[in-house]
Specification:
This protein is α+β, with helices and mostly antiparallel strands. It is built from five helices and 18 strands. It folds into two domains: about 140 residues, Diaminopimelate Epimerase, Chain A, domain 1 (Roll), CATH 3.10.310.10; about 130 residues, Diaminopimelate Epimerase, Chain A, domain 1, CATH 3.10.310. Strand 16 and strand 17 form a beta hairpin. The protein is globular.
């Protein structure tokens, strides 16, 4: 099944509780402007989601993907979004093979679908190569690897490791997640002057050599139940610190992801995604959205 052109057709899915709306902009009668994105993602006035995934043309991959945060900004990449988008492509007839590539602003990701009785069960995503170099994340200051640096957030001094897997992350290792005030520290770190493009934030508690628990403050979205790139960044940082083995389960409030970090710092993620519903936006909402950016 494919989206009927011009019908404002959408699907909504979640990956471990991190929910996204998937659209084909060619099937929308309005433009995805920042105000329109904010209204669609609003949980009281719109459909409600942690972001929007838009199918776009690509010359680098089999498919192109743009990821929009609920505040209207754009993300370079989303690990959970890539899984949701890949399941959408297969379930709705855009692809018939279990192996393909998706082009994002944060790099081209190789996708492998794991099928059970013809149904997508799990997906493995080639997230990209982790780097701790300040110039690539980016992090302000001289070129360096940002590992175990101390910064001040509010009245607290925190030791951080910064990493990029195609988008920026700030990882803080703590002995006990229950003592973390995520809603206080998350925004302070996200908008810290050290991160010129803002950053995703994770607080991580290493449980064993093969398991890490995390809390996530996502750039442009706030607290989220799960994040594929956050899990990937935490796994890479944990390996860099010598705390875990190269294959590790990263456990967020929404569930677990299996992350493998290669010797070359390439990161692969395996996990599920589930479709919630497919449908057409109402005329009332479309009229409001059209007023925010005009028709296509």
């Amino acid at each position: 099944m494919t989206a009927p052109a011009g019908r404002n057709w959408i699907i909504k899915s979640h990956a471990l509780g991190n929910d996204y709306i998937v659209v084909d902009p060619a099937a929308l009668t309005f433009r995805l402007t920042p105000p329109a994105i904010r209204l669609i993602c609003d949980r009281h006035l719109g459909v409600g989601s942690d972001g929007i995934l838009a199918l776009v043309p690509s010359t680098r991959g089999d498919f192109g993907l743009r990821v929009y945060n609920p505040d209207g900004s754009e993300a370079e990449k989303s690990g959970n979004g890539l899984r949701i988008f890949s399941k959408f492509l297969y379930d709705h007839g855009h692809v018939s093979t279990p192996v393909f590539t998706v082009d994002t602003p944060g790099g081209v990701a190789a996708i492998e679908l794991h099928l059970v009785d013809g149904r997508v069960d799990q997906m493995t995503v080639d997230v990209g190569r982790a780097t701790f170099m300040s110039t690539e994340i980016p992090v302000a200051g001289p070129p360096r690897e940002v590992v175990d640096e101390v910064i001040v957030a509010g009245d607290q001094a925190l030791e951080i490791t910064a990493v990029s897997v195609g988008n920026p992350h700030c990882v803080v290792f703590v002995p006990d997640l229950s003592l973390i005030n995520l809603h206080q520290l998350g925004p302070l770190l996200e908008t810290h002057p050290m991160f010129p493009n803002r950053t995703n934030v994770q607080f991580a508690q290493v449980v064993s050599r093969d398991r890490v628990q995390i809390l996530i403050w996502e750039r442009g979205a706030g607290e989220t139940m799960a994040s594929g790139t956050s899990a990937s960044a935490v796994a890479a940082a944990s390996v860099r610190e010598g705390m875990v083995d190269r294959s590790v389960v990263v456990s967020a409030p929404g569930g677990d992801l299996r992350i493998t970090v290669g010797e070359d710092w390439s990161v692969r993620m395996t996990g599920p995604a589930s479709e919630v519903y497919a449908g057409t936006l109402s005329n009332d909402l479309v009229r409001a959205l059209t007023g925010m950016g005009g028709t296509r």
